[in-house]
Amino acid sequence: MSELFYDAAPNATRVAPERPRPRTYPAKPAEVTLFGTCVMDLFFPEAGLDAIRLLEREGIRVHFPQEQSCCGQPAWTSGYVNEAREVARAQLNLLDNGLPVVVPSGSCAGMFRQHYREVFAEEPDTLERVEDLAERTFELTEFLLHVCKVDWQDLGQPTQIALHTSCSARREMNTHLHARELLGKLANVERLDHDHESECCGFGGTFSVRMPEVSGAMVLDKTRSLRESGAAEMVTADGGCLLNINGSLEKQKQTFRGRHLASFLWERVSGEVKS
Amino acid sequence: MSQRIPVKELTDSFRGRAVGALADDQLRTNFRVAMDSLMKKRADAFPDEEEREGLRELGNHIKARALSRVPDLLEQLETRLTANGVKVHWAETTEEANRIVHSIIEAKQGSQVVKGKSMVSEEMEMNDYLAERNIECLESDMGEYIVQLDGEKPSHIIMPAIHKNRFQVSRLFHDKLGVDETEDVNELIQIGRRTLRQKFLEADVGVSGVNFAIAETGTLLLVENEGNGRMSTTAPPVHIAVTGIEKVVENLRDVVPLLSLLTRSALGQPITTYVNMISGPRKADELDGPEEVHLVLLDNGRSGAFADAQLRQTLNCIRCGACMNHCPVYTRVGGHTYGEVYPGPIGKIITPHMVGLHKVPDHPSASSLCGACGEVCPVKIPIPEMLQRLRQENVKSPAEQPKVKDGGAKYSRKERAIWRFWASLNTSPVIYRLFLWGATRFGKLAPKNVGPWTENHSAPVPARRSLHDLAKAHLNQGDR
Amino acid sequence: MSARSNILNKLRAGLAGTTPRPDDFDEGLVTRPWQYAPEDRITRLRSLMEAVHTEIHQLTTEEWPSKVQELLESRGLKNVLYAPGTEHGKLLAEHWQRAEPRPELLVYDRPIEEWKEELFWQVDASVTGTVGGIAATGSLVLWPDRHEPRLMSLLPPLHIALLKASEVEDNLYGMMQKHNWSAGLPTNLLLVSGPSKTADIEQVLAYGAHGPKELVVLILEDG
Predict the structure, then answer these.
(1) Sheet architecture: strand order including B112-115
(2) CB atoms < 10 A from the CB of A26, how many?
(3) Chains in contact with B, where contact requires at least 3 CB pairs less than 8 Å apart
(4) 3-state SS, residue A254
(5) Among residues A156, B288, C98, C163, which one has the fewest Cβ atoms lying within 10 Å of its Cβ?
(6) Is the Cβ–Cβ distance between B120 and B295 less than 8 Å?
(7) C187 touching B, CB under 8 A?
(8) Does the pLDDT at position B478 exceed 60?
(9) Cβ neighbours of A7 in C, within 8 Å
(10) Is the CB of B230 inside 8 Å of chain C's CB atoms?
């Protein structure tokens, strides 16, 4: 539990939360809810569909509640607490059905798992449901790897890819490790390292529009590093980074591109190559 | 070839200064190489994850324990130091601190001060204050000496001249000291050594910072590699130490893990060349050491950060610099872009308390919240959480009573309204889906130029159908 | 209202109604990773110190005075500061009597004010004792006093330090506990881990910034 509860006094000096114990994963469930995320909704919906297909392939029934919208992160990171809380509350209520929630984005999964308890810090009565949601939230790659324990045949041609992991996915959800392991299961896929791999791509949500000069410098470095890896393409589990990186590559008139990991995995596993 | 990086005006914005820094290829290269090297050094110094994380947690707990008792510990520190013969002074503002330091020097009719490294003295702008009163205050740390010679402020809290390469230093020494130019770093250092040695001899007063002030024993602990700290605190007849009120730790044994965390996080060293523990002035039977030792305890906004339990964690900082070494923003714009004493992530979270958010309104948002800083902070300050909270304080309306000095610097009714609209959009499923429908159907009509986004990206075009749509079709029903 | 009371009042207000955090110091975290077999202690100290350009010799308790002579004469140094009031100082003086080496023995026997110029510019070397060493970090512990004042180990460009092998502890925590430092610290206690250095220019290491350019440690095997 969060260190917010250590001392009865709210102004007690805080310590950093204990290092999280490695997560114990449940057995593969019969049903899950997919939380698509707003970026994916608008810009990479096909990847969301591929995520559904990947789950269904494991014999899981996927629900997509039409009332879902956004996890609330944009307002939260901009400092607009009340607005973020309203939107977060709507998702919290929506997802309050005990089903595992699979999120094809590390930053949005991180929002549910780490930050909702900060969003609702002043509502002790809501925190139980927040913790319940946190327990049931899985980022897509960790769900496929540790819950579904996928066993895949790689039906694609040999290829080399670079893997980009969003900062929140990396630091809040260990997604880089899960994604590497998943890609490792594909016999014809070679993952190449790239320079300054753990450095931010410069998206940071509203950072990219508030500090466009610094953000621009960061994405230029990131795109160069990815291209110079020698990989044919980049894959990433996070829609925000994908929007940022592909948008920059297009502006630079580069041919190199990135794809959402869900789409890449579906292609390799199903044999369906999309044009 | 090499470009001088001038002191930036405080009236510029972070963004304005960043643009200048980003265009400076020499600066970009210097910082990139330097930060990569410092990151590697730290990683090499902490090869064992268990050991590292256990020590970070201990460091975090030690600082939290000290902060949870800080008023008592400050009193205990004062009592012990006084019993040891050290005079303790308190200053709420940098102005007060400067007056105290000046009066000590004046009482000795001093005119030459030599300074070991002290970031608090930078906060005080002590050199300028004393210069205005005809007292020469010379930096003796090599990096600080170099930036002082060039009329600049330090750009990093541990490596003040990190933005300069050897050619720039050689040219500087040639211009200011009249010596021949040389590319040999060793020679450059020897030039500095000779020049400063005479100053140590002549100085009336030595000024230093403090890394840890130990309440249990009444001891000031200083770390350094060069020896100028020992010189400044031993050779002149008077030693004045200046430090922040958050630097006090409870017990002598508390410094053991903090020392290890500090030197390994800062420069990847198991220990610094010298660890200097001072517990009083020269005793009757001793032959050297200052006859007077003073400690000035400075607040300057720290008590403001302290007042809020969440923001209090900012005061855990042991000034190692690891956060800025790992920061992708700092690496690209360098320390001067922040325009204030402390750069990088720690600079962003402490400066608002010191000078007020209206002076540094962009500080909280000059970050992508990547979290690299929080991951390496040896005392586990949750830096992204601090930034996040400062963003909240920054957009509060006056009625909402911001808790940070001059909060609400970025309060905007217009922006508030935009987010209110965003919230209603995202909490009304019908309107949200209508918005999706509009965006996807008319996506091609979206403007090609979407402000700052299109500076760095092609215009974003929404997909032809939203995920809501595709999912509904695929799953054959809009279900719950 | 003084600055002192204003500051303390603000801090106390921030803590109103709270209790101090418990002392959960775990000494295992600063000892377990830093423990060595007795025969490995010197090896570790030596390798860490040599990595930062310390010159180290392991000698018997009889050999060291002539080693000091050799160190000085091979560098063409003209004098050395020593402490006649100490055991090791007496041994050095005796050797000098017998061997009559060229370098002159100097004594730090008056306050620094009386001979600052000479001390700053004309003393080539010093020989001091230590109160021990720390294997974990490769450090000497110096406890300056009236015989061996603070500047003795700082000003001369060459500092020769005598370290008894039996006085090397595993780690700083162990050293502090064994010698009960918290019961009373001297005016100045120093950990010295190499010659003076800086990396302030391009992070290139340069030795001899302000402190001694050379540190020589003579480790005395004393059983």
Answers:
(1) B86-91, B292-298, B238-244, B205-208, B112-115, B136-139
(2) 11
(3) A, C
(4) coil
(5) C98
(6) no
(7) yes
(8) no
(9) 18-19
(10) yes
Tally Cβ neighbours within 10 Å of residue A146: 17
Hey, where are the domains in chain A? Answer: 31-146, 152-270
The Cα–Cα gap between C127 and C134 comes to: 20
The answer to whether the CB atoms of B270 and C117 lie below 8 A apart is no
> Does residue B378 surpass a pLDDT of 90?
yes
| Cβ-defined contact of C209 to B231 (cutoff 8 Å) | no
Architecture per CATH, domain A152-270, reads as: 3-Layer(aba) Sandwich (3.40)
In the three-class reduction of DSSP (H, G, I as helix; E, B as strand; rest coil), residue C171 is classed as: coil
Tokens linked to B211: 């890394």
Give the pLDDT of chain A (275 residues) as one tens digit per residue.
344 444 568 899 999 988 777 889 999 999 999 999 999 999 999 999 999 999 999 999 999 999 999 999 999 999 999 999 999 999 999 999 999 999 999 999 999 999 999 999 999 999 999 999 999 999 999 999 999 999 999 999 999 999 999 999 999 888 899 999 999 999 999 999 999 999 999 999 899 999 999 999 999 999 999 999 999 999 999 999 999 999 999 999 999 999 999 999 999 999 988 75
Per-residue pLDDT reduced to its tens digit, C18-73: 999 999 999 999 999 999 999 999 999 999 999 999 999 999 999 999 999 999 99
How far is the C-alpha of B93 from the C-alpha of B70, rounded, in Å?
19
CB burial of residue B445 (10 Å; 0-12, 13-18, 19+): exposed
Query: Where would I find the H helices in B46-107?
Result: 49-68, 70-83, 94-107
Q: Do B259 and B275 contact (CB within 8 A), yes or no?
A: yes
Handedness of CA B159, B160, B161, B163 (dihedral sign): positive
Joined together, the tokens standing for residue A26 give 């449940």
Q: DSSP string spanning B21-37?
A: HHT-HHHHHHHHHHHHH
Give how far Cα C92 sits from Cα of A75, B389, C106, Å: 75, 64, 12
Residue at token pair 């041994």: C91
AA identity, residue A101: V
Residues of chain C with Cβ-Cβ distance to A13 below 8 Å are 15, 18, 21
Å from B332 to nearest chain C CA? 17
Which domains can be identified in chain B, with CATH numbers? 7-40+323-400 (no CATH), 49-55+69-300 (3.40.50.10420), 413-475 (no CATH)
How far apart (Å, rounded) are the C-alpha atoms in residues C52 and B302?
38
The ipTM assigned to this model is 0.97
C-beta separation of A108 from A37 below 8 A: yes
Q: Which residues touch C17 (CB under 8 Å, ≥6 apart)?
A: A9, A11
Q: Which segments within C61-103 are labelled E, that is strand?
A: 79-82
Sign of CA dihedral A232, A236, A239, A242: negative
Whether chain B has a CB inside 8 Å of the CB on A174: the answer is no
Coil/strand/helix, residue C80: strand
- Sheet containing strand C168-169, strands side by side: B248-249, B212-214, B219-224, B274-278, C188-192, C139-142, C132-134, C168-169
Q: For residue B179, what is the DSSP state?
A: P
pLDDT band at B6 (very low <50, low <70, confident <90, very high): very low
CA distance C9 to chain A (A): 15
The Cα–Cα gap between B136 and B118 comes to 16
Query: How would you list the strands of the sheet with C158-164, edge to edge?
Result: C55-60, C214-221, C158-164, C125-128, C79-82, C104-107
Chain B CB contacts of A208 below 8 Å: 368, 452-453, 456
For residue B391, what are its two tokens? 């963003």
Which tokens belong to A147? 């819950």
